[in-house]
Amino acid sequence: MSDSPTQDRTLVLWRCTVCAFFASFGMLLSTWAVHLPTLQQRADISTAQLGTVLMVLGAGSLLAMQFSGSLIDRVGSRAVAVVSGTAMALLLNVPLLAATLSQAVVGAFVFGVAVGAADVSMNAAAVDVEREYDRPIMAAFHGVFSIGTVAGSLLAAAGFSTGVDATIQTVAVAGLCACVVLGAALLTRRTDRGRSAPASKGDRDRPGPTAKRRRPSMRVFVLGMLAFLLLLAEGSAMDWSSLHAQRHLGASPTLGALAFGTFVTAMTIGRFSVDRIVSRVGSVRVVRWGSAAAALGLLIVTLSPALPVTLIGWLLLGLGLAGGVPQALTAAGNVGSEPGRALSRVVGLGYIGILSGPGIIGWVAEFTSLNIALVVPLCAAVACALIAGVVAVPLREDVQHQPS
Length: 404
Hints:
Blueprint: H1 5-34, H2 36-43, H3 47-75, H4 77-91, H5 93-96, H6 101-133, H7 138-161, H8 166-187, H9 201-204, H10 209-249, H11 253-281, H12 283-303, H13 307-321, H14 324-332, H15 339-367, H16 370-373, H17 375-386
Helix pairs in contact: 1-4, 1-6, 1-7, 1-8, 3-4, 3-6, 3-15, 4-6, 4-8, 6-15, 7-8, 7-11, 10-11, 10-13, 10-14, 10-15, 10-17, 11-12, 11-13, 12-13, 12-17, 14-15
C-alpha cells in the first residue's frame, strides 16, 4: 500500500467508494429484475414481448461496453463510474414506468447503455484500487455486488408485503443508489485515484509495436473466452438449478429453491474468501483448481440420485466459480497500454456468456433432457481449467500473483 498515513486513508476511502459502486449496481439490477412482472402488467405486454425488452437491454449494455473502455483510458475509471452509476439509478424507472411496449423498449435500451458503462467502469476502478493495494481484493468487490442484489431483493419483498406501491419502491431505490454513488464519489473528489494505469514506461519504450499490439489482443481474446465460459456456467446454474432439482429429482418447488440458494450462498462466501487464497497460491491456481472443482460439482449434480448429494454439487460449483471472473478481470485490467479497452472487451464477452448460457441449456434440454444439458457448463468448466494460465499477471504489475 501507500507509504504515508494520508495516502493510506485516501486509498481506503477510494476502496469504500468502489464498494459503493458495486453495491449500488447489484441493488439496481435486482430491483429491475424483481419488478419486471409489474412492468409487464403496466405496459400490457406478453411474455415474448418482455423477452424482447430484455434483449434490447442486453444490446444497449453490449454497445456501451464497446465505447466505455476507450473513455476510461482517456478520463479515468472514477469519472466514468460516477457518471454511469448515477445515470443507471436515474434511468431505472424509465422502462419500469413505461405504459406501452415501444416506451419499454426505448427505456430498456437507454438503461442498458448505463448498465454496460457502469459494469465496465466499476470493474476498471476495482482493478485500479487492487493495483495500488498490491494484493488481491477484486473478488471481495464482487461479493459486495452479491450483497447489493440480496439487499435489493429484500427491499422489494418488504415493500410488496407491506403494500407499498411499486413505483414508490423503485423511485426510492433509485434515489438511494444515486445518493450512495454521488456521496461516495465526494469522498475521493480531491484525489487522482481511479485513473487506469497504462503499462510501465519500460514496456512503452520497448521496440516492436506491431508485436505488442498483436500479443495483448490475442491474450484479451483468451481472457474474454475465459470470462464467457465462466459466466456461461454461472448463468446456467442461476437459471436452471432449481428447475433441475424439480424435474430430475422430483423435488418440490420449496426444496428445489434450496439448489439455487446453495449455489448463490457458496458464490457469495467464496467471493469474500478467495482473495486471501489468491495471495497465497496465485491467481492461476485459483482459476485452474476452482474450475476443476466446478466441473466436479456439475458432474455430481448430473449423476446424483438424491437432493442432498445434488446440493453438494451445487456447493462445489459455487465455490469453484467464485474466484474465476475476478481474476480474469484483474488480468484484463493489466493488459497493455489501454487497459480500459481490454477490460471492456472481456466484460462484453462475459456478458454474452451469462446471457446466452441459460438459453443454450434450454435448447439442449428441449432435444435431450435438462440433466444432460448440464454437460454444457461442465465442459465449459473443464475448458476454463485448461486455459487458466492466461490470468497470470506480469510480476512488475502484481507481485502477489504467481503462476503455477
